[in-house]
Structures are given as structure tokens and as C-alpha cells.
Specification:
Layout: H1 2-81, H2 86-103, H3 105-108, H4 113-168, H5 174-180, E1 184-192, E2 198-200, E3 202-204, E4 210-217, E5 226-235, E6 250-254, E7 257-261, E8 263-269, E9 274-280, E10 289-297, E11 300-310
Parallel strand pairs: 3-11
Antiparallel strand pairs: 1-2, 1-4, 4-9, 5-8, 5-10, 6-7, 10-11
Helix pairs in contact: 1-2, 1-4
Length: 311
């Protein structure tokens, strides 16, 4: 009976290893499929990340291109307002080089998104700064426009005054007109430095804190007793008149033409000899070379003097 039992058990035990091998194969297949799935996932994820990076880089590049156009607008606006554009032009050139670098596919791969975003942010901040500068320049130009209107009104009033004077003198003959003109004697121009030291005729630029323009109006018994406006023009070596509205400069009409003056002096001329002193303080350095100082009143040149500025 024992032998019979052993014979019946043998077929059962010989099938057990086959089931075990099937299980191992099944597990192995599952792991293989899992690995394949993970590889596919990582590959797809990497592609997706690359696409997202490429899309983000493209958006950032388009922003750079837009900023480039905005820089052109700022440069044009600041130029019209008389501002400084050299720095902006340099930045514009740098931006164009960065755009060319980006368009190179191989070089673009080396660009980090954070770096590109920082560049965009920096350029945006620059545009905001330039917008503030434009606002300031616009305000200054508006103020100058208002001052110019005031100067034009003053010129119109002055022109009316001159016309009235001419009308009153129409009954006088040419001889009386010539005799009544004022003349200047002892024309002198001195430079006063910050310590109050005075130098005459020729002086260095650093020694000029103020100009002292002095002269004597000659006695004239024929000239009418009246208020006189004296316009002083300081003409630089480049033939331009020193002009600054903040220090009292303006314009007047001379022989039907508008001239700019540096300073103005109003006096009461009573036919006697009078010494006139005018001080002028310039906000910017003087040009090197020979300068001419002219004094006008009514519609004629009263007299002139000169001085030399050395380096």
C-alpha cells in the first residue's frame, strides 16, 4: 500500500515546477512592460519639457523683439525733445546682437529661461526709466514753450514801445537824430573770481565767477530826458550770444530783426554823464577765445568792447 501511494504522488510533484516557472515569466514580463512604460513616460516627459522650454524661450524672444521696437520709439521721442540718446543706442545694438544669438539653434540651447527672463525684466525697467526721463523732458519743453510765449509777448510790448518812440521823433530831422544818439566812453570788462579778485581785459576761464561790464554814457544836451533800456549782448567766439532765460536773457527788435540779448539794464537818462555797471553770472563755462560785448538802446548800437578768455 505504501508503494501504491508513492506512485500516485509522483505525477503531482512533477507538475509543480512548471507552474513556478510560469509565475516567474509572468512577473518578468510585467517588469519588462513596466520598464518600457517608464521609458516611454520619461521620453514623452522630456519632449514635453523641451517643447515647453522652446515655447517659453520663443515668448521671451518675442518680448525682446517688442522691446527693441519700443527702444526705437524712445530714441526717436528723446531725440525730438533734445535729450541724450548715446546710451540708448548702445543698448539697442546690444539687444540686436542678443536677438541674432538667439536665432542660432545651437546657441539657443545654451540659453537658460531664467537668464532670458532676467534680461527681459531688465530691459522693461530701462524702458520705465526712459519713460520718466521723457516725462521730465516734456515738462521742461512745455515750460520753455510757456517762457517763449512770455518772451514773445514782452517783445511785442517792446516793439510797440519802440514804434511809439519812433512816432514821437518823426518830426525831428536826421541831424537831431544823429546828435541825440548816446555814446559810450571808457568801456571796460572785468572778471571777478569767487574770492572777489578782479582781472581786466584778458583772463583765464577759471577766474570768471562774474563779468563786470562798465562804461560811461557821455553827456548829451540834445538827447531827450527819458527812461532807457540798455540791452547787453555777450557774443562768444562761435558768434552765438550767451543766452539763459533764468539769468534774465531775452530778445529785442533791432532794425526790424529779432536779436537775443544776454542782460538788460534800465536807466533814467538825464543828459548828464552817467557811469553804468552791469554784472553777469553765467551758469556754464565760457568758450576759449575773443568775446565781443555790444550795448544797444532804442534801434541802434551804442558801443562795444571786448575781452579774451584763456584756458
Amino acid at each position: 500500500m505504501s508503494n501504491q501511494s508513492n506512485k500516485e504522488f509522483t505525477p503531482y510533484s512533477s507538475q509543480f515546477p512548471k507552474k513556478n516557472n510560469y509565475g516567474i515569466l509572468k512577473v518578468g514580463t510585467g517588469l519588462f512592460l513596466l520598464i518600457i512604460a517608464l521609458l516611454v513616460y520619461f521620453i514623452q516627459n522630456e519632449k514635453q519639457q523641451n517643447l515647453l522650454k522652446e515655447e517659453a524661450l520663443t515668448i521671451a524672444f518675442l518680448q525682446l523683439d517688442s522691446i527693441s521696437n519700443e527702444l526705437d520709439e524712445r530714441i526717436l521721442t528723446i531725440t525730438k525733445l533734445g535729450g541724450e540718446i548715446d546710451t540708448l543706442i548702445g543698448i539697442k545694438k546690444k539687444l540686436e546682437k542678443e536677438k541674432i544669438y538667439f536665432l542660432n539653434k545651437d546657441k539657443r540651447q545654451k540659453i537658460t529661461l531664467s537668464n532670458l527672463k532676467d534680461k527681459v525684466k531688465g530691459y522693461r525697467e530701462l524702458l520705465l526709466i526712459k519713460d520718466e526721463e521723457i516725462n521730465q523732458l516734456t515738462h521742461i519743453n512745455n515750460q520753455l514753450s510757456i517762457e517763449n510765449i512770455e518772451l514773445k509777448n514782452e517783445t511785442k510790448a517792446l516793439n510797440k514801445s519802440i514804434n511809439d518812440i519812433k512816432f514821437e521823433k518823426n518830426n525831428l530831422n536826421e541831424k537831431v537824430k544823429l546828435l541825440s544818439k548816446l555814446k559810450i566812453e571808457n568801456f571796460q570788462i572785468d572778471a571777478i573770481d569767487v574770492k572777489g579778485k578782479k582781472r581786466s581785459g584778458s583772463f583765464r576761464k577759471r577766474h570768471i565767477n562774474q563779468l563786470q561790464i562798465s562804461f560811461v554814457l557821455s553827456e548829451n544836451e540834445v538827447a531827450p530826458i527819458e527812461g532807457k533800456k540798455l540791452w547787453i549782448r555777450v557774443v562768444a567766439p562761435d558768434n552765438n550770444v550767451y543766452f539763459d532765460v533764468t539769468t534774465g536773457s531775452g530778445s529785442f527788435i533791432h532794425l526790424g530783426r529779432e536779436l537775443f540779448y544776454t542782460a538788460k539794464k534800465e536807466i533814467l537818462y538825464d543828459r548828464s554823464q552817467q557811469r553804468i555797471v552791469v554784472y553777469y553770472e553765467k551758469n556754464k563755462p565760457y568758450l576759449i577765445g575773443s568775446h565781443i560785448v555790444e550795448v544797444y538802446t532804442d534801434d541802434y548800437l551804442v558801443g562795444s568792447g571786448s575781452f579774451i578768455v584763456k584756458s
